[in-house]
Recover the amino acids of this structure.
């Protein structure tokens, strides 16, 4: 087990190093002199040169990389070139916002997708099913940004029901927080909702035709009890798997949603970082995100091995 | 199940209805900006939008009005030039305090100017390059010793280089001053959330508190034009900076908002590379060997195909200001007698034929990879086609294009300049032989001497005449063909009173109030 742990941790470390290397060189391969972008349109040559000096942009990329890595290992990800704010603080402010938005979106998606999916499965080939099918098709096909703009125009500009944009912390103003996150969360949820709804429907249809369900009906149980007590538990297993897979998509979908609803989250942070060639932001954010993914994967690997001892033996002591 | 669904619907509806009753407090003004400013330190700052924030919390020795006339703000009078223009004496307003309560006196001004001049990473260094020394004469008088006479210095002190910072705060925070800036202003820095908002509260130390009619200003960063407009319409912001020209017309028609438009000091045009083979100055110029670079008739023919008014109508819905010079029509230095060349296809064809290209001439024009810039390029392409020019448009990311232009790799480049109050900064560096932004490597000593002379004299009429002569010469050289000045369009509700649009496009809320 220890050997397995060490092996997996080493692989994770190498993965992380590779990711940082790719991102580090990647941002530097974006065309255009970063010093020039940072200095703005009206750059004067002396100012540009100072920026190059200050941020060591004159050094060869490998030298820059080693310097950055050394600091990063000490927990210092540097500071934003534009605003001089420490990256760690920026991330610690922004990440919770995106996580809250994603969690809210997921909640909405689940609350809508599962009941509707079940309904579509139980009432298969009726008007309900077709309606759910078309709504889900719309959910998958409507682009985020369009839906977002339409919601703003309708609910904020026309009806003045919800604020068009912004964010307040739930600790400061829970009600305001909910109002402001509702529209972005719905937009972010749209696609996930559609996918989950289809998945629920399909897997429920499969489960509902299983023998044990037929037996339940034969016992004389009512449809409600058959569906909710017997079928749904098995029906939702594939849905949970899909949900896990869609998590990443949810976070990346937040980039666009945050832009439209002016939510100061993680997505906007990295987007602005790329546009303004704020290298430390891009590198820091990618390092943190990648570390989180790698760590999660490591945990998953380890938990699998705990659950299923056969997985551990790979590269072990010659057992098969 | 039905009950649960009903619950969800009821919750959502109640959220919506409750939201309908919420309203913003009126003592706060919310302004929507199109970009997130960089660091809020007048010495280090570089972005245009950052200047809008400074306008409210970091006042300057001099300020400009809606006619681009310079007037004293923290200074008590316009500067006195003596010693043949090499000594500049500035009288300061007495009794002014920084927002931390410390006095804004001659010593503080000297400290600030020296900080601008010498701090590591300062973006003001080159602006104050002509200053040799800053001296304190008495508590309300500062004297600048210049290396050479330089009349644009007043305009330079009417921007970030003229912003005094609180020495106490600057010493305490050093290069982190921008995280808690402290200057003189009707409002004072309160909070910043990166990429979201900057909050300023009314100052308790400002010398004219009646000018700050709002207790709080919130600058919100909303980068997308459509989203910013939706926020204005929904009442989430009270003031919208940079309205897209395509929205200005419909916004006016709606009748709910005031739409303020002013021709800006910025210009747009296109560079034609004449002799930049190995880079901009100080690299030596070289022969490009192309007719576009070497034959003035080809360039003249090209300019004669352009209908500036039609371009403005097609791309900018007629909202911008067509022109053929780098000086904005609102500037006191603008030459009102100048007539821009009008479209003349017959003459363009003849010139092209004389140059030996009766069957047409092809070249490549680089444009920024943004939809409006591409449209400008396409309109020019179509116009030039009628005279036999075959322009291929090369869209390129902005920073990459600037690099390529510096290196002399672009035969023609559609680009602009954000503009400065004093014409010197809009002309000198682009058109003098050794100019730092002379990427076309155009060089003519007569033009150099006219532009240098315009730096030395301070009389407006005299300078206007010098610029007129210089423009006549470089307009005929056509290393930059100017097309239009961008108008700064802002929108706000009709019951907001007292707003004056200034051609630098910055928003000034001082003196503005709800009706």
């Amino acid at each position: 087990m220890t050997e397995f742990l060490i092996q997996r941790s080493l692989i994770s470390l190498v993965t992380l190093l590779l990711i940082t290397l790719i991102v580090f060189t990647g941002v530097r391969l974006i065309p255009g002199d970063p010093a020039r972008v940072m200095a703005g349109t009206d750059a004067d040559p002396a100012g540009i040169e100072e920026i190059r000096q200050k941020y060591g942009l004159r050094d060869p990329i490998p030298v820059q990389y080693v310097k950055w890595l050394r600091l990063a290992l000490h927990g210092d990800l540097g500071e934003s070139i534009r605003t001089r704010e420490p990256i760690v603080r920026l991330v610690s402010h922004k990440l919770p916002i995106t996580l809250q938005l994603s969690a809210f979106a997921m909640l909405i998606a689940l609350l809508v997708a599962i009941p509707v999916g079940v309904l579509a499965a139980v009432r298969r080939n009726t008007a309900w099913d077709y309606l759910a099918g078309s709504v889900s098709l719309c959910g998958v096909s409507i682009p985020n940004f369009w839906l977002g703009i339409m919601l703003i125009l309708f609910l904020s500009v026309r009806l003045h029901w919800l604020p068009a944009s912004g964010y307040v912390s739930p600790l400061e103003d829970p009600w305001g927080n909910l109002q402001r996150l509702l529209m972005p969360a719905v937009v972010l949820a749209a696609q996930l909702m559609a996918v989950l709804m289809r998945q629920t429907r399909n897997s429920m249809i499969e489960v509902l035709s299983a023998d044990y369900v037929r037996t339940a009906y034969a016992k004389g149980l009512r449809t409600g009890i058959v569906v909710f007590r017997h079928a749904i538990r098995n029906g939702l297993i594939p849905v949970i798997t899909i949900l896990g897979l869609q998590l990443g998509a949810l976070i990346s979908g937040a980039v666009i949603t945050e832009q439209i609803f002016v939510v100061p989250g993680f997505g906007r942070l990295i987007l602005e970082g790329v546009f303004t060639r704020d290298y430390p932001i891009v590198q820091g954010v990618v390092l943190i995100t990648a570390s989180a993914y790698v760590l999660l994967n490591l945990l998953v690997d380890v938990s699998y091995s705990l659950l299923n001892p056969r997985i551990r033996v790979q590269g072990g002591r010659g057992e098969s | 199940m039905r009950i649960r669904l009903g619950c969800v619907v009821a919750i959502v509806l109640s959220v919506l209805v409750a939201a309908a009753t919420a309203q913003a407090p009126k003592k706060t003004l919310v302004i929507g900006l199109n970009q997130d400013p960089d660091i809020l330190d007048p010495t280090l700052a570089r972005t245009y939008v950052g200047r809008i924030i400074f306008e409210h919390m970091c006042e300057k020795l001099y300020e400009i009005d809606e006619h681009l006339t310079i007037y004293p703000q923290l200074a008590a009078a316009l500067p006195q030039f003596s010693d043949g223009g090499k000594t500049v004496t500035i009288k300061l307003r007495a009794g002014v305090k920084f927002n931390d309560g410390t006095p804004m006196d001659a010593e503080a001004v000297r400290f600030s100017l020296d900080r601008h001049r010498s701090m590591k990473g300062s973006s003001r260094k080159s602006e104050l390059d002509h200053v040799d020394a800053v001296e304190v004469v008495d508590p309300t008088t500062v004297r600048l010793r210049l290396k050479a006479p330089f009349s644009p210095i007043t305009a330079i002190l009417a921007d970030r280089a003229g912003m005094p910072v609180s020495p106490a705060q600057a010493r305490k925070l050093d290069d982190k001053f921008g995280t808690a800036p402290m200057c003189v202003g009707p409002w004072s820095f309160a909070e910043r959330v990166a990429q979201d908002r900057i909050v300023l509260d009314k100052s308790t130390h400002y010398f004219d508190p009646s000018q700050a009619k709002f207790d709080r200003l919130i600058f919100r960063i909303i980068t997308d034009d459509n989203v910013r407009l939706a926020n204005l319409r929904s009442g989430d912001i009270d003031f919208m900076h940079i309205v897209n020209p395509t929205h200005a017309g419909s916004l006016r028609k709606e009748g709910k908002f005031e739409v303020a438009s002013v021709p800006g000091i910025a210009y747009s045009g296109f560079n034609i590379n004449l002799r930049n083979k190995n880079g901009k100055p100080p690299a030596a110029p070289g022969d490009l060997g192309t007719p576009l670079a070497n034959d003035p008739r080809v360039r003249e023919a090209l300019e004669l195909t352009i209908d500036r008014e039609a371009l403005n109508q097609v791309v900018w819905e007629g909202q911008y200001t067509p022109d053929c010079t780098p000086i904005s029509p609102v500037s006191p230095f603008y030459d009102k007698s100048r007539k821009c060349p009008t479209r003349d296809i017959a003459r363009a064809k003849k010139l092209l034929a004389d140059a030996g290209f009766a069957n047409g001439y092809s070249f490549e024009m680089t444009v920024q990879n943004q939809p409006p810039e591409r449209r400008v390029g396409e309109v020019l392409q179509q116009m030039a086609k009628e005279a036999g020019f075959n322009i291929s448009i090369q869209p390129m990311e902005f920073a990459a294009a600037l690099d390529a232009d510096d290196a002399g790799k672009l035969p023609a480049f559609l680009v602009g300049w954000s503009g400065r109050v004093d014409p010197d900064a809009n002309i000198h560096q682009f058109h003098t032989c050794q100019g730092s932004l002379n990427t076309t490597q155009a060089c003519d000593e007569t033009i150099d001497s006219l532009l240098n002379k315009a730096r030395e004299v301070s009389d407006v009429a005299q300078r206007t005449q010098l610029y007129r002569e210089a423009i006549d010469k470089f307009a005929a050289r056509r290393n930059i063909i100017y097309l239009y000045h961008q108008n700064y369009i802002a929108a706000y509700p009709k019951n907001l009173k007292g707003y004056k649009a200034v051609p630098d496009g910055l928003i000034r809320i001082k003196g503005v109030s709800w009706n």
Notes: Confidence is low (pLDDT under 50) at residues 315-320 of chain A. The longest helix of chain A spans residues 87-122. DSSP finds 13 helices and no strands in chain A. The radius of gyration of chain A is 25 Å.
